Amino acid sequence: MTTYIGVLDGHWRWLGKPPKIFNSSPGVERTFCDNCGTPLSFRSTNMSGVMHFFAAAMEEPEKFAPTLHVAFEEKLPWLKLADGLPTRVGPDYTKN
After folding, report:
1. Distance CA 7, CA 24 (A)
2. How big is the CA angle at 5 (ends 36 and 58), to the nearest 5 degrees?
3. Segment 13-35, tens digit of pLDDT
4. Residue 91 scores a pLDDT above 90
5. Quick one: pLDDT at residue 24?
6. What is the pLDDT of residue 54?
7. Distances, alpha carbon 52 to alpha carbons 12, 48, 77, 82, in Å
8. Could you give the count of Cα atoms lying within 13 Å of 72 in the half-sphere of its Cβ?
9. Phi and psi for 15 in degrees, rounded to 5?
10. How many whole angstroms separate alpha carbon 18 and alpha carbon 74?
11. Neighbours of 41 (CB within 10 A)
């Protein structure tokens, strides 16, 4: 399972040297550390206007409380979420 923290464009910035960018498929941009290869972020035209940062690459991801689950249809069958947060499915995860 991967946890991303989505932040609206204009509400974040890279500190220091920007990471390398890899266009992994049409409309999808991924960034990574050019020194060690750690994945850092993900952006998709299906979720335009938002950068999704890998929580595992952040120093203090616990400072960001979750507000919803996206790509819920992709979860593994043994994962049971009982936090009451809304879920989003389908190609446009930004719509209710």
Report:
1. 20
2. 40
3. 999 899 999 999 999 999 999 99
4. no
5. 94
6. 94
7. 11, 10, 24, 23
8. 14
9. -100, 125
10. 30
11. 21
Residue 8 in tokens: 């609206």
Cβ of 70: how many Cβ atoms within 10 Å?
17
Burial class (CB in 10 A: 0-12, 13-18, 19+), 43: buried
Q: Which amino acid, 50?
A: V
Q: What is the pLDDT of residues 29-62, one digit of tens each?
A: 999 999 999 999 999 988 778 999 999 998 899 9
First to last CA, the chain: 23
Identity of the amino acid at 40: L
Distance CA 21, CA 27 (A): 13
Among candidates 37, 43, 77, 81, which has minimal Cα distance to 57?
37
What's the pLDDT score for residue 96? 46
